Batch of 2 targets.
Target 1
Amino acid sequence: SMAMALDRHLVLIGPMASGKSTVGQLFAARHGLQFVDSDKKIVAKHGSIPSIFSAQGERGFREIEAREVAALLTAAGDPCVISLGGGAILDTGTQQLLANCRVVFLDADLETVLPRIRRDTGRPLLAGDAAARWTEMAERRRPTYLKLADLVLTTRNKSQAELVEELSTLL
Ligand code: S3P
């Protein structure tokens, strides 16, 4: 379809496995926009997320993440579609940069993410009881996601294609 012009970056936020990367990628492809995933940038430069966590802890990961996200959000160039790791919004500098973006919160429930997070080895913060860890983090961060969001998309009973459709309509 026709290319969409964005006036600001379109940034997807939300808890782990909510579909930020997939929905962002599909949306960007459909509208002829560039797509960038913050976790992918981090992994390309610093190695896998589990290896960063084991070598530098969550604190080290957050420092790297804040730096990479700031670089993405302030880079010269056309506005694009960006997906952030679930915890990127914890950083106050990132929160300030998001004020100049169009922020979409993928408001996921456990049922949506459960098939994606069981047996997941790529997300160190879900080690142990993944469902319980996910729920605790999603609930704790939800007020921050809501505060930063210009648009909230609930994921319950929707395919990722349907979410792309809904986002295209609402934008
Ligand atoms: C994290 C989410 C992950 C990744 C890291 C920490 C979090 O990204 O950045 O494992 O704290 O929520 P996804 O949201 O893509 O799973």
Target 2
Amino acid sequence: MTMTSKEIRQKFLEYFESKEHLILPSAPLVPKDDPTLLWINAGMAPFKSYFDGRATPPNTRVSNSQKCIRTNDIENVGNTARHHTLFEMLGNFSFGDYFKEEAIKWSYEFLTEEMKLDSSKFWISIYKDDEEAFDIWVNQIGIPKERVVRMGKDENFWEIGTGPCGPCSEIHYDMGADFGCSDDCKFGCECDRYREVWNLVFTQYDLTDDGEYNPLPNKNIDTGMGLERLASIVQGVDTNYETDLFQPITNFIGEHTEFDYQENDDITMAYRVIADHIRGVTFAIGDGVLPSNEGRGYVIRRILRRAVRYAKKLNLKVPFLHKIVPVIVDIMGDVYPEITEKEEQIKKVIKNEAIRFQETLDQGIQILEELIEELDQNNQEIIPGDKVFTLYDTYGFPKELTEEIAKERGYKIDEAGFESAMAEQRARARAAREDHEQDHAETKLFKEIRNEINKPEFVGYTMMESKAD
Ligand code: ATP
Ligand code: MG
Ligand code: MG
Ligand code: MG
């Protein structure tokens, strides 16, 4: 192997340390003091207060490798070579210190000199009016102008409401024509060919309430690069799943199923989804989130249950998924000691949830099959909302799962009907609530585990107590 993911991560941090950055450890996945965010979803997320001036950073230059969860990418997992629920984002940040020129030059230098990537494969996107970025890439770095592409506000301008904002520039790597979705697949296509690797955000404006973009006195840099993607390119493999971050996991799964990783697209997808989802769930539980019916706990429950469903496609025995945890700990436990420390609890939670879900899954699938048959006979294509709700409420079948199975079979679900059934049930539960014994799905074992890991930083528990119906 050319370079291990450990070496890549290490080299990134060392490179920016050599440029006087303070190396900070990854923050937990559960945001601290930020009710607007469910999960830390980018390297800059823990530093928001440094960017908007509410707090003073420990150094004006900072670098990290941050664990992130993005639930908006769940559907992409396994379908693309490059999206995960949990991934690591490598980042360098400037709080009113260096700006565009250094950020671009260092990103280029790191990729070409430290990672030894071939810059003739680079495609650069910039914001259409960012002449400064164009000049740096073309005249200072020497990227041919044909491969520096101007994009609009949607793609290459970062802003959330009013306040600090600015253009960004992204570095993509052309994987070659074999990866294209068609013969005329061009840069800008969403397929796996032109792989987005690194996003450099230049926070240089302050957007006022009147819609004016005023130059910021203190300009900031915020960059983010997916470690798994970078590793796939450096290691010369087709997808993130063939890197050393994932391969031990897929190999381990392979030892327990009769299906080969390459057997067919569905089987490969199942391997990938399981590997991805158990990684995500392992890290989330490691940071104190437990499966439940609300908020973060619901996200974890949904991800875990999705993994159970894919495990069924591989005929994996139940319970099995918890056995993957030590493999993950082996790969990443030294960098993220929290998963090493909580290995046993993580295994217990996954095992318990998987067993419980398998039982309901068998029952739920049968009910869904009957429903579909009934719709078929009546020439209908939409599964009624109240039925979707019953599956969710009584059989523990997440709505998304019903939707997914329905979609596979060419059916839709009545979303609005589901939502109103849900609202009705919430109102009923609120009225009927008598004590604090809230999560009706909670088993005795669950409570034991919860007590075991019920430490002050254990935010998932607090959320469950305060928000569950
Ligand atoms: P994409 O367009 O591929 O979905 P993005 O534009 O949403 O990525 P950014 O928000 O710019 O991603 O994040 C910075 C970097 O983090 C990306 O360039 C990529 O390397 C990595 N990244 C983003 N989302 C994921 C994900 N779901 N899984 C793995 N890596 C990711
Ligand atoms: Mg994205
Ligand atoms: Mg993108
Ligand atoms: Mg991007």
